[in-house]
Specification:
Blueprint (H helix, E strand, L loop, with lengths): L1 H29 L2 H11 L7 H16 L11 E4 L2 E4 L3 H38 L5 H28 L1 H12 L13 H5 L2 H36 L1
Antiparallel strand pairs: 1-2
Helix pairs in contact: 1-4, 1-5, 1-8, 2-3, 2-8, 3-4, 5-6, 5-8
């Protein structure tokens, strides 16, 4: 009984830690203004801003989402749009970005609590069954990676089948208002960040998540091999 409880704690703890690692990896990708610019160059996005103006807008959005000195003033500034000096983002767009930043902040809280829960569960798993070695803990990490990889692959498959539909469903699920419904004629943000931008960003986040899973699995497997060799 204690052995089963130990395995449950170890596996649950590993799942929590892997989820935290994935959130961190995707957060780093989604708030990298350099990636924004690279995507814009690929899409040849027509925004009304010149190249340096697009770069400034990308930096402002990334800084705001990172939450480091990210007050609304970071988005409330003027630039040359179609040759006329005007506000880059209007009140509706800034209000929407408050909602978006709230989602990022919630994700970071989940990441923090997942780390805490993961560590506590791993420790509990080892304490519950004295024979629960480091090797068993590492094996539970590989189990967690496998479970999450299967779940992630299923999610990616469903999203890529019809990205537009998934994109709309995600917004309807995450937001309880219609501030995300923007007009390209009046709202620069939707010209700067069209659906194709998010499709490219989602692809890059998926790649980051895959690399994180591979790195975690490789590290835990290497640890298991080292322990076996010593024994």
């Amino acid at each position: 009984m204690r052995r089963a409880a130990s395995w449950i704690c170890l596996t649950a703890g590993a799942l929590a830690l892997v989820v935290a690692a994935l959130i961190w990896a995707m957060d780093m990708t989604a708030t990298d203004s350099g990636r924004y610019m690279a995507i814009h160059e690929t899409l040849n996005t027509q925004t009304g801003l010149d190249e340096e103006g697009v770069r400034r807008a990308d930096r402002a959005l990334a800084v705001y989402l990172r939450g480091r000195d990210g007050e609304d003033d970071d988005l409330d500034y003027e630039d040359s749009v179609y040759g006329e000096t005007t506000r880059v983002f209007n009140d509706r767009e800034i209000e929407h970005m408050r909602d978006v930043r709230g989602i990022f902040e919630t994700a970071r809280k989940i990441e923090m609590w997942a780390i805490i829960a993961g560590v506590l569960l791993m420790v509990a798993g080892i304490c519950l069954y004295n024979r629960a070695s480091a090797s068993r803990a590492l094996k539970s990490v590989n189990i967690a990676v496998s479970v999450i990889a299967v779940a992630a692959a299923s999610g990616v498959y469903l999203i890529t089948r019809d990205f537009s539909r998934a994109f709309l469903a995600m917004h309807s699920l995450l937001f309880d208002n219609d501030l995300w419904v923007l007009n390209p004629e009046t709202d620069l943000m939707i010209r700067l960040l069209p659906e194709q931008f998010f499709q490219s960003m989602a692809r890059q986040m998926a790649v980051s998540a895959i690399w994180m899973l591979v790195a975690v699995a490789a590290a835990s497997t290497a640890g298991i091999l080292v322990i076996k060799k010593r024994n």
